[in-house]
Write a structure and sequence with these properties.
eight-stranded mixed beta sheet; six-stranded antiparallel beta sheet; binds aspartic acid; about 40% helix; 14 helices; alpha/beta; 16 strands
């Protein structure tokens, strides 16, 4: 058995957190490859080291003095070194960083130092080998992640290594420059390493006890999901769920490796298992609820549109020509609605509308803004009768007017469009009916 374990920023924010992490790793010999984030927040008022690095580098780029800011970053690491009584010194590293900042090594280089230094400390503390991600995680010159080359390099580099710490979040471009994933990208590195070493499990340690059924900012103390499939999580995360970086599923999915979300501050909790497929039913008919505000609907009306070959394509072309992606496409016999993100659409509205007129000659176009989408997701919905009925009854009782309904053809999700102001009420009503009262 081989486990890849990734620890997030809050799990590695201080010496006390490092001690917890070491205890978790040492309690299981199968935890062989550790992927580390940069130090995160120690409390809610704190600043992540990644943000400090971005701020500091911005000064360097403008040619301004940045010594005070860099010293504050060094102090964050020194606090960890002192707290753990390590004999390591990072002063040479900080001299190199200062020189590279002055030479304008780039924003990605700056941010990458957060995980680089933290991983060095963690490796020293654990007595594991430090393996730099720059050696093996690679990007194409276009900036796109090079999945296959990376997989070969990571597999080859770690083949003979027994225990290692690898910094998350970055790799390198063909020109040797550091390149990062988007924010929260250490989750992706963990998944890449798990795939390459063919791990039995990818443990992702964070500060919550798993994936929650609904957003805790809307639902007070929501339940933890015990098992969720990749597909369900994907549906939820594109609708704003953020326990794991959206792209972190893809590398492990190739090998069908399960992800186990765990809590560093509560290691005894089983957390959430994210799996390729499962015969385990979810505790409730639904697995999770997520959603987002800020959508616009563009509805076209045209008599006999159903008989007009290519009508749909021409509608979508108007959006494509303006570089706007669409979210959903509910349609009726003589109507078709395109749901788009309001912020993407707003400033291109006039162009899209004229393109629609030119390409499709509709009888009318109606635009409605300030809509929210709620996604109710669950593999259990496929075999359960009446799920949609219960959702809409709950919404009606909560006085929420449903503007749009879209059930994905895999019967894995039901998407409901409501007004922005009804968003929270809608989520509460659905949570209540399925989870709190288990109806
Ligand atoms: N440190 C990076 C960030 O704050 C990456 C990560 O922690 O996953 O986004």
């Amino acid at each position: 058995m081989k486990k890849v374990v990734k620890f997030g920023g809050s799990s590695l924010a201080s010496a006390a957190q490092f001690a917890k992490v070491a205890q978790i790793i040492k309690s299981d010999k199968q935890r062989k490859f550790v992927v580390a984030s940069a130090p995160g927040k120690r409390n809610s008022a704190d600043t992540k080291v990644t943000d400090m690095l971005y701020g500091c580098y911005a000064l360097a780029e403008e040619g301004k003095a940045f010594d005070k800011e860099l010293a504050a970053i060094e102090a964050r690491y020194q606090e960890i070194i002192d707290g753990l009584e390590l004999t390591v010194s990072l002063s040479e590293d900080f001299k190199t960083i200062a020189d590279n900042f002055k030479a304008k090594a780039g924003k990605d280089y700056a941010a990458s130092r957060g995980e680089f230094l933290n991983s060095k400390l963690l490796a020293a503390y654990l007595g594991f080998e430090f393996v730099d991600a720059a050696e093996m995680i690679c990007f194409k010159q276009s900036g796109e992640f090079n999945a296959e080359k990376t997989n070969e390099l990571v597999a080859a580099r770690l083949e003979k290594v027994e225990y290692a710490v690898i910094p998350g979040f970055y790799g390198s471009s063909p020109d040797g420059k550091a390149k990062t994933f988007s924010r929260g990208g250490s989750d992706i590195t963990g998944s890449i390493v798990a795939r390459a070493v063919r791990a039995d499990v990818y443990e992702n340690w964070t500060d919550v006890s798993g994936v929650l059924v609904a957003d805790p900012r809307i639902i007070n103390d929501p339940e933890v999901i015990d098992v969720i499939t990749y597909k369900e999580l994907r549906e939820l995360s594109y609708m704003g769920f953020s326990v794991l970086h959206e792209d972190a599923i893809f590398p492990v999915r190739v090998e069908g490796i399960p992800i186990n979300i765990r809590n560093t501050n509560d290691p005894a909790a089983e957390g959430t298992w994210i799996v390729a497929s499962t015969c385990q039913k979810s505790k409730y008919t639904i697995t999770g609820i997520a959603g987002k505000k800020g959508f616009c609907s563009v509805t076209l009306e045209k008599d006999m549109m159903n008989a007009e070959v290519g009508f749909g394509r021409r509608v979508l072309q108007a959006f494509e020509d303006n570089d706007i992606s669409f979210e959903h496409l509910p349609s009726g016999i003589d109507t078709m609605t395109v749901l788009v993100h309001q912020d993407e659409f707003m400033h291109k509205e006039a162009n899209v509308v004229s393109a629609l007129h030119r390409l499709t000659h509709p009888d009318g176009i109606e635009i409605e803004s300030d809509l929210a989408l709620v996604a109710v997701v669950g593999r259990g919905m496929k075999s359960a009768r009446g799920t949609a009925g219960r959702i809409f009854a709950a919404l009606a009782h909560a006085n929420v007017n449903v503007k749009m309904i879209d059930q994905g053809s895999s019967e894995l999700n039901i998407i409901i469009g409501v007004r922005n102001e009804d968003f929270e009420v809608a989520i509460k009503a659905i949570y209540d009916i399925f989870v709190s009262s288990r109806l």
